Amino acid sequence: MTNLLLRNHSPDETGRVHHVTPESAGWRFIGFDLFQLAAGQSVCGRSEDRETCLVLVAGRADVTAGDQSWADLGDRMSPFEDKRPFAVYLPQGESWRVTATSALELAVCTAPGQKGGLPIRLIRPEDVASSVRGQGSNTRLVYDILPDSQPADSLLVVEVVTPPGNWSSYPPHKHDQDNGGAETQLEETYYHRIDPPQGFAFQRVYTDDRSLDEAMAVENGDLVLVPRGYHPVGAAHGYTGYYLNVMAGPRRAWHFNTAPEHRWLLKPA
Question: Among 17, 48, 180, 257, which lies 20 to 30 A Cα-Cα from 95?
């Protein structure tokens, strides 16, 4: 894999901006679609062998999942509003439909369903744990939408807001080997938003042996693929960074390994 950065562009006639499959990414687990819909526009889907998490990044929508429906979900019009998101989890074999009731930014996150049988569930903002991680210029805000403490077969989904000039996914860490409680093998996508939107952030994806080593200037609406390696993000001064992370792998647990040369940064100040 050489092209890790997928640039933002105008949506197609269905409203889709990004479309990642295991085949297009050259990996095994994660699928990711990003839709920008006008009010009244709809998208739908169904997978016999993949579970799905629908994340309302911004805007409101009517959502039908299996035999359940919710009207006019969503109470933030931007991921920078200091509000946690609404999301809906569906196990494999269930169909879904989303109809925008305002301008809508919708992320469709998928991964293999392994057992099935889990219930469809609405994930409300009050169900999403929030925390502040790091210290100093490494401080960031984290919203755990679908953490490993909540039921799913493969998916892990989280939002991160990085203040201007700060770093996140830092000190550099990786999760590309299965090593018990020390590390799990997880593919990952980063869907980036920047506020104000003319700004940028930087992301580096690299391995210890530098067989993979890419540094990318990331702009508003871009998507970064992380098949393996370390993947720190830095927000430019004056610009707040947001990203939606999707992770999945052969074992559903988030255990990461910090780069040895940077572990000194984890010591208390």
Answer: 17
Q: Is residue 194 situated within a structural domain? A: yes
Pairing of strands 200-206, 167-168: unpaired
Tokens, residue 36: 């920008």
Residue 182 is assigned to a structural domain of this protein:
yes
Asked if residue 251 belongs to a domain, the reply is: yes
Give, in order, the Cα–Cα distances in Å from 81 to each of 85, 130, 209.
10, 14, 40
pLDDT tens digits along 31-82: 999 999 999 999 999 999 999 999 999 999 999 999 999 999 999 999 999 9
The domain spanning residue 165 has which CATH number? 2.60.120.10
| pLDDT tens figures, 238-253 | 999 999 999 999 999 9
Q: Residue 162 has which token pair? A: 């990085």
pTM for the full predicted model: 0.97
Length of the chain: 269
Number of domains in the chain: 1
